[in-house]
Design goal:
about 240 residues, 5-stranded parallel sheet, two-stranded parallel ribbon, 13 helices
Length: about 240
């Protein structure tokens, strides 16, 4: 599945503007496919907002893109082919409504390539405006090939534990001490590692996913361990993942 060469050629031949929505789990390769499609369309690198949180703000913030900045890109000369990649995960209703206006008024030289792990969180009007592309988890062979291509030093067991997600594989390789703590059910080490995390929700999400992959029989015990980490973000993560 994913965007086939035949589909890509079909979209390129259309006169109307295209808004493609790539749907799939984290680490499945949505961005890779969007980048490939964007390069084919614009004959250059797409304008990539996928690693930023899009916010309704006139005040520049590090790591964020204001809607005004985004609208400026949508307003580029219609004579230039452009492809814009957006990560819609985490976008609130106000932001989605603002983006929807741009979806409804693009030029026929503009492609929008949107990414999401959870289309149910998007406005129905956004989903109906998009051509949807389903991107499933990577196979173990595909994930291993991706890791080699990106010079990620991994083991076969780590590929198995990643369960088709390149994002999780990178996390596993970067957090081998935590992985060992999960394997040995070392609660003290897990709590110590949790307290050093700046992004506790992302960390807890990966830890709980790893616990499930390793067939912990008492996931509730795992949640209780993480909840004792003394971080409000960890408690929120555990609640969201319950």
């Amino acid at each position: 599945m994913g965007l086939s060469e035949a589909q890509l050629n079909f979209f390129i031949q259309q006169d109307s503007p295209q808004v493609l929505l790539f749907i799939g789990p984290s680490g499945s390769g949505k961005k890779d496919q969007a980048m490939e499609a964007g390069r084919a369309w614009s004959q250059g690198e797409p304008i990539d907002f996928s690693d930023n949180q899009i916010v309704m703000s006139k005040v520049p913030a590090e790591g964020k893109v204001s809607m005004q900045t985004l609208q400026d890109y949508f307003s580029l000369s219609p004579g230039n082919r452009q492809a814009i990649i957006l990560n819609l995960d985490g976008a609130g209703i106000e932001v989605q409504n603002a983006i929807l206006k741009r979806f409804e008024e693009p030029t026929n030289r503009t492609w929008v390539l949107a990414l999401t792990t959870n289309p149910a969180r998007l406005l129905p009007t956004i989903r109906s405006r998009c051509q949807t592309i389903s991107v499933p988890k990577r196979s173990r062979d595909d994930l291993a090939a991706w890791a080699l291509m990106n010079n990620i030093n991994h083991t076969e067991e780590e590929v198995v534990l990643a369960e088709g997600s390149s994002e999780r594989l990178v996390w596993i390789v970067d957090n081998r001490d935590t992985v060992d703590a999960v394997k040995t059910k070392d609660a003290a080490k897990l709590l110590h590692n949790l307290r050093t995390q700046d992004e506790a929700i992302f960390w807890c999400s990966n830890v709980l996913g790893l616990m499930k992959s390793l067939h912990w029989t008492d996931i509730e015990e795992a949640r209780q361990i993480l909840s004792r980490g003394g971080k409000p973000e960890a408690a929120l993560a555990v609640a969201l993942l319950a």
